[in-house]
Amino acid sequence: MSDYFERMKLIKLGLLPKEAVAKEKKPLKKVSDKKAAEMKEQKATGVKEASKLELDVWFSNIKDKHWGASNYSRCMECGTEIHIDYSRHATAHLLPKKLFKSVATHELNYLILGAHCGCHEKTHRVDKFVTMTIWPEAARRIKEMMPSLPFDELKYLSSQLLTALDNTP
User: Fold this and answer.
1) Please, which residues have CB within 8 angstroms of residue 119's CB and are 6 or more apart in sequence?
2) In this predicted structure, what is the pLDDT of residue 106?
3) Residue 109 belongs to what domain range?
4) How far apart are CA 167 and CA 80, in angstroms?
5) Which pTM was predicted?
6) Burial, 108: exposed, middle or buried (Cβ in 10 Å; 0-12, 13-18, 19+)?
């Protein structure tokens, strides 16, 4: 061990040249093996395309309902105008579509909240979400959707969210 430290000391002082140790660089995988297998299965069954199409239709229906012929709708929290071009960005899922696939396109699983005014961002944390004026409406919608959640998705409901729902009339 002392030889190592002595050698490092001499290298630091510039008395010995650094030995170039060629390390083999391995590129990182762009997609994990598990995800690649999942994507291959989805491609074979066509599930991904069908769910993407269903989600596009869902967003389009919300756009028609809230923007209609107008170019502007309002943020449900602060009332800021939201242009029709940002309709998809302003549609905030109450229960994340990635975790709650069964209600990803449910007619109640959204609120119109502006991304540019910051209201959409507040829904990502329960402690911030419950302080919003739109929370009672969101809680009502979530409570209405909960019975339709399959058992394997119920595990994603946090105890903090469940407590907040219990404390909301």
Assistant:
1) 75, 76, 77, 78, 80, 113, 132
2) 93
3) 48-166
4) 28
5) 0.70
6) middle
